[in-house]
Write a structure and sequence with these properties.
Blueprint (H helix, E strand, L loop, with lengths): L1 H36 L4 H12 L4 E4 L6 H12 L3 E5 L6 H5 E7 L5 E7 L6 E5 L6 H13 L1 E4 L2 E4 L5 E6 L12 H4 L4 E4 L5 H11 L13 H13 L4 H13 L7 H6 E3 L3 H17 L7 H12 L4 E2 L1 H5 L4 H13 L1
Parallel strand pairs: 1-8, 1-9, 2-5, 5-8
Antiparallel strand pairs: 3-4, 6-7, 10-11
Organism: Allorhizobium terrae
GO molecular function: ATP binding; ATP hydrolysis activity
InterPro entries: ATPase_AAA-3, CbbQ/NirQ/NorQ/GpvN, ChlI/MoxR_AAA_lid, P-loop_NTPase
Length: 337
């Protein structure tokens, strides 16, 4: 009996390695297609793709004009997903996102209600400038992100699978915005900071985007294949050492856990969802970089996008000009020591 189990395990391992290698080459193809259209910004592309490969949603934060919208449409094409976009504005209503019931009348004068689906019924949804909409509208979207279905007039409607939201947000100092509440930020697997491009990338943007022809990405995957890769990522083995590194990092970011620096600077820290995000994204990052198992380096590389929107600094730390990323960088240093 022992023999059969061993052979099965060996077969499983062989099959696992074969499907992981297929996924590796497909992910490399997706990266290549995206790089035809998006210049530089490797870190942003990587984090956004990792969120999708891990089955989650991402929040892209940056000033306007940094190709966030272009990145989302390019990813939609390369991943073969049905994409839609909502521009958030202060007067946007929940029904503008979810859809609404309209009354139909047949030739006999009988009236009935029919549900017309809103733009949320897409596999890849771009929520542009999510912090411009009212809290009521934000929460309609954020609830659907959590539950993968919506309820209208007591009737449940399931969202497509896969379903990913990539939301963009301008930095919060801008006027006329409603910052997302902490509990809702936690729904995003990663927060990706989009900075200005490097000089070489900006030169390429100028030369390649102001002519007549524009580069286009080709489809590499489709929805079914993406789901298979997402399933594979959840099956990847994670060593005890990596699990310990995740727990140690997440717990050290919480006040009251014996870390003097955290107690001094952090008002509240990340919950268990942060650890879950690190577990999933570390596996996805390993595949993204051509490896079959995640390492402690993956955990440390993902610390900032996973933790920064799940913790807040004390008033005193902010007054000293500290930023969350400084605290995270110090925690990584401590955890490496």
């Amino acid at each position: 009996m022992g023999m059969i189990t061993t052979t099965d395990t060996a077969l499983d391992e062989k099959a696992m390695i074969a499907s992981a290698e297929r996924a590796l080459s497909e992910i490399a193809d997706v990266r290549r297609e995206v790089s035809k259209v998006i210049f530089g910004q490797e870190q942003v592309v990587e984090s956004t793709l990792l969120a999708i490969l891990s089955g989650g949603h991402a929040l892209l934060v940056g000033v306007p004009g940094l190709a966030k919208t272009k990145l989302v449409t390019t990813l939609g094409t390369a991943l073969g997903l049905d994409a839609s976009r909502i521009q958030f504005t202060p007067d946007l209503m929940p029904s503008d996102i979810l859809g609404s019931e309209v009354m139909d009348q047949d030739e006999h004068g009988r009236r009935s209600f029919r549900f017309v689906k809103g733009p949320v019924f897409a596999q890849l949804l771009m929520a542009d400038e999510i912090n411009r909409a009212s809290p009521r509208t934000q929460s309609a979207l954020l609830q659907s992100m959590q539950e993968y279905h919506i309820t209208i007039a007591g009737q449940r409607y399931d969202l497509p699978a896969p379903f990913h939201v990539l939301a963009t947000q301008n930095p919060l100092e801008q006027e006329g915005t409603y910052p997302l509440p902490e509990a809702q930020l936690d729904r995003f697997l990663l927060q990706v900071d989009v900075g200005y491009p490097e000089l070489a990338a900006e030169r390429q943007i100028l030369l390649d985007t102001t002519g007549i022809s524009h580069a286009h990405a080709n489809a590499v995957l489709d929805a079914e294949r993406l789901r298979a890769i997402q399933h594979l990522i959840r099956q990847m083995p994670v060593s005890e050492v990596v699990v310990d590194a995740i727990l140690s990092l997440v717990r050290s970011a919480r006040p009251g856990q014996g870390n003097a620096e955290t107690d001094k600077h952090v008002a509240w820290g990340p919950g268990p969802r942060a650890g879950q995000a690190l577990m999933l994204c570390a596996r996805a990052r390993a595949l993204y970089e051509g490896r079959l198992a995640p390492s402690i380096d993956d955990v440390h590389a993902l610390a900032e996008p996973v933790l920064q929107h799940r913790m807040a600094l004390t008033f005193a730390a902010r007054a000293e000009g500290m930023a969350v990323r400084d605290v995270i960088a110090a925690l990584i240093k401590q955890n490496k020591a």
